[in-house]
Known about the structure:
The protein contains eleven helices and 19 strands. The chain is of the alpha+beta class. It has three domains: about 1-55, Molybdopterin biosynthesis moea protein, domain 2, CATH 3.90.105.10; about 60-165, Pyrimidine nucleoside phosphorylase-like, C-terminal domain (Aldehyde Oxidoreductase, domain 3); about 170-315, Molybdenum Cofactor Biosythetic Enzyme, Chain A, CATH 3.40.980. It has a six-stranded mixed β-sheet with strand order 15-14-16-19-18-17, sandwiched between helices. The longest helix is centred in the middle third of the chain and has 13 residues, at about 215-225.
Amino acid sequence: MKLMKTEDAVGQVLCHDITQIIRGEKKGPVFRKGHVIREEDIPVLLSVGKDHVYIWENNENTLHENEAAEILYDLCRNDYMHSTAVKEGKIELVSDIDGLLKVDREKLNAVNALGEMMIATRHGNFPVKKGDHLAGTRIIPLVIEKEKMERARRAAPGGKILTVLPFHHKKAGIVTTGNEVYYGRIQDTFTDVVQGKLSEFDVEIIGHEVCSDDHEMITGAIRKLLDAGADMIFCTGGMSVDPDDRTPLAIKNTGARIVTYGAPVLPGAMFLLAYYGEKHIPVCGLPGCVMYNKRTVFDLVLPRLMADEILEKRDLDVLGEGGLCLNCGTCTFPNCGFGK
């Protein structure tokens, strides 16, 4: 770009928007970038304080901000998302579906570290809905060196900084455990809570088994639901370290692979995650806090299971920072720090 005296700029192409502010009436662009300056435009430009304007001139070593913004968009985009129109070197990405947002933090940080460009995203590992804005990208200066954008490509090889994993229809089974419920001493209030959580997604509950604390009975109930075609199973009734809490043993005895028994999340420290068989069917042991706390580890894990993400222990280990729910008087989850 080239700085030119406004009176001498007739016939030149603006390389940035010119904003006009009239108190109580207007604030917005009076001329858009790409506008060819006419003789009658000169007084207007002078009235908004533009004694000089930047005009576009071709340079084989630089890119206009809008061209460079397209490169940032290409580095971010993946399936199930689209872009907004480029404006002042800025492009936003919008989700085409309901799903789970994943962010490649290593690539994101590498691009942002280059300077003169930025990508700002929502938090990864949380649900998004169709039409939600996922990220915004922007080139900071009006023009940028081509070599700088090549460095951005190298910093994020293969692109795909953002991914939206679609949610899937699931068939769920619920196993309620505990002598107190099985023998009718108290009413089961846990199952309703789990059903409520599952109703936020496309889940069909195909079975509900009520068991005593007998671990063989619990194992049999889990296997019955697996045989019935369950894609996921949730064992309720609490997951404690008490000797008479046999649910972890029962889950293990199904042959499921225990990923973790415990998570650095409060509420939810006693959460158990296991996977059964070659299809990696999740079998979860839900701690009692899920029944009486509004948000728990279950809210952090369930969306990822719905997107068929196979979680490993390290995926839960990193939840410690942000893993403390503050039990706010008015819950704003997920628009808060919990799980982030």
